[in-house]
Specification:
single chain; about 50% strand; globular
Length: about 200
């Protein structure tokens, strides 16, 4: 198994942050979504940004080119098995909103994600997230069962969205995406095998 931690290290500002193989330790909750009174609509995760309520739209099918990415392109294969995203979110003072975190995986030879090929068959969803009090945290997970995933000099991309299931009840209702603190926020993959003894899973440590 390989664990990628969700860091706030910028690879491309306001577009991609680093999937890191060593655990960071400084909590960052300065990004997320202003949910407003939205339901049954989705907004993508955008690094370093509180997405406005106007970004909640019908669920997209094309790659949004936002989220997390490996530092370097990879060559090798992930074994058949389960991929798990573990995450943490926080509400603000208006906490009745509920939602789900969803994710997709992509691969591309281009660092900006252009021409990306989807690895997952669609969006993979978490349990419904609820908040019990103002400014409280909640954790969750989402998984995908995939066959062998092979990358050939390609970056791995993780795309995330917040899917609103219950209205925030207030125009200022918000959900904050928490990351950069370690085990609570990570992507766990099946076993990785480089193509030869000389292959490496190149990452920033």
């Amino acid at each position: 198994m390989t664990t990628y931690y969700l860091s706030d290290d910028d690879l491309i500002a306001l577009q991609y942050e680093l999937l890191k193989t060593t655990a960071p330790s400084t909590l960052d909750e300065a990004q997320g979504w202003t949910v407003d009174k939205k339901t049954a609509l989705a907004s993508p995760y955008k690094p370093e940004t509180i997405q406005p309520a106007t970004t909640f739209v019908s669920e997209p099918s094309v790659f949004g080119a936002l989220g997390y990415r490996t530092q370097s392109p990879l060559t090798g294969s992930f074994a058949s098995g389960n991929w798990f995203l573990s995450f943490k979110v926080k509400c603000n003072a208006y906490y009745v909103q509920r939602g789900r975190v969803k994710f997709r995986l992509w691969r591309s030879t281009n660092a900006d994600g252009s021409g990306a090929t989807q690895i997952t068959s669609g969006w993979n969803l978490s349990n419904e997230i609820t908040f019990s009090s103002p400014n409280s945290y909640n954790t969750g997970s989402a998984g995908a069962s995939l066959g062998i995933v092979t990358l050939t000099n390609e970056y791995l991309f993780l795309e995330i969205e917040w899917y609103a299931t219950v209205s925030g009840g207030n125009n200022s209702a918000a959900v904050y995406w928490v990351h950069n603190e370690g085990d609570a926020e990570r992507l766990d993959t099946p076993a990785w095998a480089p193509p030869s003894a000389g292959g490496v899973l190149a990452q920033v440590m």
